[in-house]
Write a structure and sequence with these properties.
The complex is a heterodimer of chains A (about 30) and B (about 450). Chain A is an all-alpha fold. Helix content of chain A is about 90%, strand content about 0%. In chain B, helix 2 (about 35-60) packs parallel to helix 6 (about 175-205). The chains are: A mainly alpha (about 30), B alpha/beta (about 450). The interface between A and B is medium-sized, with 24 and 43 residues.
Chain lengths: ~30, ~450
């Protein structure tokens, strides 16, 4: 895999995970 | 071979699902009354942190079944980025909780519960140490072996202590089913870590190797030849690498990755060309012939299929020639007829490793070799400077779908060459690269 893609995947996935966690907290509080 | 977009997305989804698993298990049980938004954010960040940390152990364990096709260098790049994210999560978890409700400060107060406070402070300290020593290993003067011991030990302790903390908090994981599910989930990466550090080296003991030749090479390199002792050797594909350990014990932390430069048909006699650039590699010039050795591998997706009959471009810098040399040897053995181009960059002419061997291969193959030097001698007739878009345009044919590109060299060269090739229209599927700067 070329570096231009590989270098961003971890960051991209981290942002997605963070968004899901924040959304979950929001959902809990209702 | 490069994974396609479909495979990449699929593995990303698998990773995301596994990292979210502790959080999803916690939310699937009987939920207590909601607290403030900040407190619930803090709780979710903690559960997510546990999942991401568990996945860190899986990703760094060189498990062939995980992320197959992505290459160890790409997995470790991903591991680095998610490791930094895990650190942020672990720090943000108590911070957010405390800002949301100051009573959570009690968790860090030794007067409230000494063991709990010490273990939580330990997690914060240990994960910060993990991050700092990984990002600045060389600046801190840490040898690779010391760093590796520290990293493995702290990782195990952080995940195990984090799991203990999650099970004992008794909020979202108050129910026995939830506790067991999360414990089982996180036990898997912990056991995988033990497998990679203990069971795997133990299995290597059944497949010993011995150093039979050691020879200095131009470019401050050394050629090592290992022969299998009492077994059939290692089946590998040209371009792959293995983790080499020298000495009587396969449990040694002196384990380093090197590309095989030998013929794939000689499984029982494996050859490495190693550039002497650090403490371990410098010691290789004096290692005694007859020394026992252990090989864990093969690994790597920086491979070609010589039988495919596709035109191939190799752009390498310095010791990046070693995996390509194995590929070219395989092509020569098969009598490949498809045109190939090699752009080989070095600093000085007498540093060119495998120069004579490459010339010999160019006699046997339809291979056009272009040497590029940054510090050429006065009588140099070849290319000078760095491999850039201009040189690529002059030396290589116009791109087409039947050409594959293999790039391997120091990071600055690769950072320049990959975008240049992409700008020429080379698709990601046809562009293969491997980076060696793991830690």
């Amino acid at each position: 895999m070329v570096h231009e893609i590989a270098r961003h995947l971890g960051t991209l996935v981290s942002i997605v995970l963070l968004g899901i966690a924040l959304a979950a907290a929001w959902w809990i509080v209702g | 071979m490069n994974p396609g977009w479909g495979k990449t997305v699929a593995w990303m989804l698998v990773y995301i699902a596994l990292a979210l698993a502790p959080m999803l298990i916690a939310l699937s049980g009987e939920r207590p009354a909601p607290r403030s938004l900040l407190v619930e954010i803090g709780a979710m960040l903690g559960l997510l942190g546990l999942g991401v940390l568990g996945m860190q152990l899986v990703m760094s364990g060189r498990h062939r079944w995980f992320g197959a096709g992505f290459g160890q260098d790409n997995l470790l790049q991903f591991h680095r980025q998610t490791g930094q994210f895990a650190w942020l999560l672990v720090l943000a978890h108590p911070l957010t909780l405390i800002i949301g409700d100051r009573e959570f400060l009690a968790y860090l107060d030794p007067r409230e519960d000494l063991l709990r406070a010490l273990s939580l402070i330990f997690i914060l300290f240990a994960i910060s140490t993990l991050l700092l020593t990984s990002l600045w290993r060389l600046g801190l003067g840490l040898s690779y072996e010391v760093w590796r011991t520290l990293h493995a030990t702290l990782s195990l302790l952080v995940v195990a202590t984090g799991l203990g903390h999650a099970l004992l908090v008794d909020h979202y994981l108050a129910g026995m089913t939830s506790k067991l599910a999360v414990a089982a989930l996180i036990a898997v990466p912990l056991l995988l870590l033990l497998e990679s550090r203990l069971l795997r080296p133990w299995r290597l003991k059944q497949r010993p190797w011995r150093l039979v030749e050691r020879e200095s090479q131009p470019g401050d390199a050394v050629r090592l030849v290992l022969e299998a002792q009492g077994h059939s050797g290692m089946h590998f594909v040209a371009g792959q690498f293995a983790w080499l350990t020298l000495g009587p014990s396969p449990f040694s932390l002196q384990q380093h990755p090197f590309s095989m430069s030998s013929l794939v048909t000689r499984r029982d006699r494996v050859e490495f060309i190693v550039k002497q650039s650090g403490d371990f590699t410098r010691s290789l010039s004096t290692v005694e012939v007859g020394t026992q050795a252990w090989l864990e591998g093969p690994y790597g997706v920086f491979t070609m299929n010589p039988s495919a009959g596709r035109r191939t471009v190799f752009i390498v810098g310095g010791i990046g020639i070693t995996p390509v040399y194995s590929m070219l040897r395989s092509c020569a053995e098969l009598g490949c007829k498809q045109p190939m181009w090699l752009i080989y960059a070095n600093n000085e002419e007498d540093e060119i490793t495998l120069s004579e061997e490459i010339d010999a291969l160019a006699e046997r193959l339809p291979l056009t070799v272009t040497h590029v030097l940054t510090e050429p001698p006065d009588d140099w007739q070849g290319e000078t400077g760095y491999v850039d878009a201009d040189l690529i345009s002059r030396v290589l044919p116009e791109d087409s779908d039947d050409i594959d590109y293999f790039v391997c060299g120091p990071p600055p060269m690769m950072d320049s060459v990959e975008p240049a090739l992409r700008q020429r229209g080379v698709s990601i599927r046809r562009l293969h690269s491997e980076r060696f700067d793991l830690v």
